[in-house]
Amino acid sequence: MKKFIYPLMAVALSSIAISSITIAQPRRAPYMEFLTSEDTTSLKVPFSEAVRVGNILHLSGNIGNIPGKKELVKGGIKAETKQAMENIKRVLLLNGSSFDKVFKCTVMLADIKEWGEMNQVYKTYFPENRFPARSAFATNGLALNARTEITCMATVR
Description:
single chain; 4 helices; 34% helix; 157 residues
């Protein structure tokens, strides 16, 4: 019986040693890349348009401003939502992604009563009604007195 116990103990101890070596290996943090374009750097604001971590693109919040200007489009919530989504589209495309790769959005509204009107525009940007996970909430103020601010996360090709 002892002949079988020692080899089994040796196998068990070597498995523990190998597991310990594997666990002790340092983990590398994913590479981070801070991304911006002239439209944002010209505004001299303290944020990147997006940050890429591995194959995930994290977009900053986008309002309905005219690209490169601290000026909102005119026309209220629908016009601002359309411009915010166009701003998001521009950032996605510049960085190797698109709306079909978006998996999470957060929508901030100056007035939650405008949620339905915002949705009418928002939903037109996603292919085949494949909507990302989303959170929406009201705030008591957004940059430039915007009606909405939208941020998204997407995979990168």
